[in-house]
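Model it.
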Amino acid sequence: MKQGHNKGSKHNQKVEEFRVNERIELLPYLLEVLSNRSRNSVKSMLTRGQVLVDNQIQTLHNLQLAPGQLVTIRKYKIVEKTEFKGITILHEDEDIIVINKESGLLSIASEKEKQLTAYRQLMNHVKHQNPKNRIYIVHRLDRDTSGVMMFAKNEKTKKKLQDNWKDTVNERKYVALVEGKVQKLEGTISSWLVEGKNHKVYSKQHAPDGKHAVTHYKVLQSNSKYSLLEVELETGRKNQIRVHMQDLGHSIVGDKKYGSKSNPIGRLGLHAQVLAFTHPTTKKSLKFMTEIPKVFFGTSK
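Modeled.
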């Protein structure tokens, strides 16, 4: 029955192949050709999608095999195709993935949430294509900030992007829904940001131990209660926009941590709308723009 047994590599993946030479059910056949494995181990391989018959994944224990059929056993666990929750892929190539992340989804794992993150979902996605694939964090968006975010697909690209972030990124725009009517239609906020022991970021006019942060803003529309701003980052510091809006005297709605007293939209009023950059490998200019959440407009009319 082990006629045609072939250990080796198929499409760069370790596999074992067996050619069937008599009618038999799949599980008994596997138990015979994999006599060095336990019954539970073989059943687990079936469940995980590691067994293919004529190049089709099969999980039925009693599947009837016929002479001449090819049984392939993959040496790795198959990762199920990802059903994305809270992310949409805008662009993917050999080096990068660009996504639109919804508010409420973590970029990467935290103490409390390790599974449902943008990072974990994208890792599953690339591993489905090839189990050796990985993704790498380049920058982050806060859990409750929505919008455009980029990941690298190899360490070389990650290093290129992080080492040359300021020169690579040509445009990074957000929209912020803030409390109150912003009187000055456009302006710039500049300060030094220092992170405290409680992970809250503080803004200071001069701080040798702080990081210089510069934020430009422009009013898109406003009423007596709320203003919608276009915000452009000159620097990319942790919580920069949130802290600088508090400095301006107009905290982002839903941002209790930085002074907000209202939340008419049921989420943080911050959205990463535009990310434009030079591709680290092809050197082409790419620009990704997402829609401003409609609830932002409705509140600030």
